[in-house]
Write a structure and sequence with these properties.
alpha/beta, 5-stranded mixed beta sheet, Nucleotidyltransferase, domain 5, 50% helix, 10% strand, 3 domains, elongated
Length: 354
């Protein structure tokens, strides 16, 4: 029984005893309450029913301490566009793109006033808004976002001191597309800066695991003059184990990169890579596969490359070292602190327009 239920039950007992005895004064004397209290309860029930017996807060809202109405509108509009973003992410994005300084607690206060403090409530609000304004929003899309897996919780922290110190790598099963086949994604992330890399393949073998390092990861680090020291993977067969005849192990040996594997049945050890897989799934695949019909792997890779460019150059990150900066900005800052950064020209059109 909750406290509210107890209070309502006690008040109803006063009314019931008065009716049973037929003497209000006697009932009030037995229960130790005043006659005025009895009549207050009776009036509340007559006017508002059982709800009238609930405790009413006398605290008046302090309007002067609230954010400006236009800022609150910005937060609510952002929640419609990106309902799955958390309060820290919203705070960082508003500062970066709109110049609005608002703490994560301030964002949550606005959410609570409008009863959208959880992701499920924000998704329901988006669905209602879509129905009222005639915008197309499929039930399967909403359901997919609601069923997004919870972020894995890691126990302890990995050791990473600068960009290139440790690279997390993982194989992620994207799904099966008719006419294309089973699609696997090789994911890699610099654990210091959260700079990410992703490439899709049709098989889960050692060759794709080594190919992403050769095609995307090592060229990026070489371009910045930073050596890659160590790679952390799970215990999948595509990554081998202390066997130089294994293609992946041989590739790491030739490039003087140390290999570390996670403890069995402990994927949280490589939690930052798992988190990047979730981000790509939620922000890219769940949208892309509903907007476009893909017939080749190259089409998927082209759109994936565009998203990863946005992730690295534009998207704010709440990681331990990022603290609201983009992964690339954190990469540059970490490299400069180590005295390893080599100046270079802008990498893309997106960056040139910043």
């Amino acid at each position: 029984m909750t406290q509210q239920q107890y209070i309502i039950g006690r008040k109803l007992n006063i009314l019931e005893l008065g009716e049973k005895l037929g003497n209000i004064s006697e009932a009030c004397r037995k229960l130790g309450v005043s006659r005025q209290h009895f009549y207050d309860i009776k009036t509340a029930v007559q006017e508002n029913g059982i709800e009238g017996l609930l405790e009413q807060s006398r605290r008046a809202p302090r309007i002067g301490n609230r954010v400006a109405p236009e800022v609150e509108t910005k937060v609510l509009d952002y929640a419609l566009q990106w309902p799955t973003h958390g309060q820290v992410r919203v705070s960082n994005e508003l500062l970066k793109h709109a110049g609005i300084t608002l703490s994560p607690g301030g964002v949550r206060s606005i959410w609570m006033r409008h009863e959208i403090q959880t992701k499920a409530l924000r998704l329901k609000r988006l669905e209602r808004w879509s129905a009222e304004h005639g915008e197309v929003l499929t039930e399967s899309q909403v359901q997919a976002l609601e069923n997004a897996k919870e972020e894995k919780q890691s126990h302890g922290e990995i050791e990473t001191h600068h960009p290139g110190y440790l690279l997390g790598q993982d194989t992620y099963f994207v799904g099966t597309i008719k006419g294309v086949g089973r699609i696997y994604q090789q994911t890699a992330i610099d654990t210091y800066s959260n700079v990410g890399f992703a490439k899709v393949y049709l098989e889960k073998t050692a060759l794709p695991a080594a190919d992403i390092l050769n095609d995307k990861v090592l060229p990026y680090f070489d371009h910045h003059g930073i050596p890659l020291l160590r790679v952390l993977t799970d215990r999948g067969t595509e990554y081998g184990y202390k066997n130089l005849e294994h293609p992946y192990q041989l590739f790491l040996h030739l490039n003087d990169v140390e290999h570390t594997r996670t403890k069995a049945r402990h994927p949280q050890t490589n939690g930052c890579t798992e988190r990047l897989n979730q981000i790509i799934q939620e922000e890219f695949y769940q949208t892309a596969f509903r907007k476009k019909i893909y017939t080749t792997l190259d089409q998927i890779q082209a759109d994936l490359d565009e998203y990863m460019e946005h992730y690295n150059l534009m998207r704010t990150n709440q990681g331990k070292n990022c603290k609201g900066r983009t992964p690339r900005d954190t990469f540059i800052m970490g490299a400069e602190l180590c005295g390893r950064f080599i100046p270079y020209k802008t990498e893309s059109k997106v960056e040139e327009n910043l």
